[in-house]
Design a protein that fits this description.
By secondary structure, this protein is of the alpha/beta class. The chain is 51% helix and 13% strand. A hairpin with a 2-residue loop joins strand 6 and strand 7. Helix 7 packs across helix 8 and helix 16 crosses helix 17. The longest helix has 22 residues. It is flat and about 85 Å long.
Length: 463
Amino acid sequence: MSDKEKDQMSHEEVLELMAQETDLTPKKIVEELDKYIIGQNQAKRAIAIAIRNRWRRLNLNPTLQQEIGPKNMLMIGPTGVGKTEIARRLAQMVKAPFVKVEATKYTEVGYHGRDVDGIIRDLAEMSVRMVRDEYVERMKDKIESQIEERLIDSLLPGRRERGQEDEATRERHERTRAKLREQLREGVLEDRQIEITVEEKAMPIGVMGPMGFEMDDEMQGMLEKLMPSRSQKRKVAIREARKIVRMQEIDATLDKDKVATEAIRRAENTGIVFVDEIDKVCGPESAHGPDVSRQGVQRDLLPIVEGSTVTTRHGPVRTDHILFIGAGAFSRSKPSDLMPELQGRFPIRVELQDLGKEDFVRILTEPENALTRQQKALLDAENVTIDFTPDAVDMMAQIACRVNQSSQNIGARRLYTVMEKLMEEISFNAPDLKGQSITIDEKYVRDHLLELAKDEDLSKFIL
């Protein structure tokens, strides 16, 4: 098969992987993000266009595909305004491999810390897990059937070979299997003890290297293949055996090479890397102290963002078309403090706005995962009904804004502080309040958050 044919086949397979994004127009993406994130329309529009452009690229001929790069972007805004949530929800929406990393965890090569290539290795691992789970879901019925048969085999006593059985014996055996199958499905045998074979791979002692250093992925993969597996028989309950057998059947059924190939292709074409705290590696180069590796981290990030090949345990991954999203508050630095070459690799800039009281009111009530809905659901588990009045929500938003203004501004995360303090007494006593309905109004908020609302010394409420 020629290289051109291989490229064409990859193009068609990637288009199949991306088929679920066909209906995700920029408007639809923004609508979906609006269900969970309040405001920040500029950022939502920019990232929606970037995702749609990725789908458009994969509908072009393979030659032109290579000429169109990803629309990497830089999100600029204070903490707690939705930067990470936008990227995370988007990855869930498009079923794309996604990793979130903090730039401060990485250091220049030669210094103690993680190598930036680990970002792509993490992305490859995430992609393999996604593809593996999808294959398992597609073969769920087949795997469950195999699990059932193996459990029945373990439940039945030893018997003669099929060829030596007479017709009556075979019929009796099949009736027994059918009865056991029915009992397994009804769950009446979950506590029955059976004997199963478990394979374990032993890792040699002392291969992890000096304290604090990670084993290279390639070396780890090689050791896993070299180390012999040990088989031993164990007696376990069927409920436990089912989990063990399921893992064995999945490993036996899946084509690991096919999973790895598809996972790498997906990571290369649909992967999203969210690099948080990128502003922390800005600033002038220093010869000593904590700034010693900041410029080095940028230099090491540059080839990954602009396109290179990273070796992973599943195979080489090209980074040319991975979407990179940088984010940071840039309170003590500015985007122009980044290396010019790195700046050029983040051509789209979006600035996220501070959140005010009205935004907090909407965050508390509108999203599908709103904090008020979460609290209601949690207390429903205790058979306690909670209702928040509009004036109570307004007061909580007002208090959260005041605390942010009086101390460190942590954005919408402040609402967690306010909500947990407000619900502390009810949550603690909930098991004794079964069947009761509690209305939380403005007076209740004032009574329970009086110190937070009036005291200027708010240090004990700061997260």
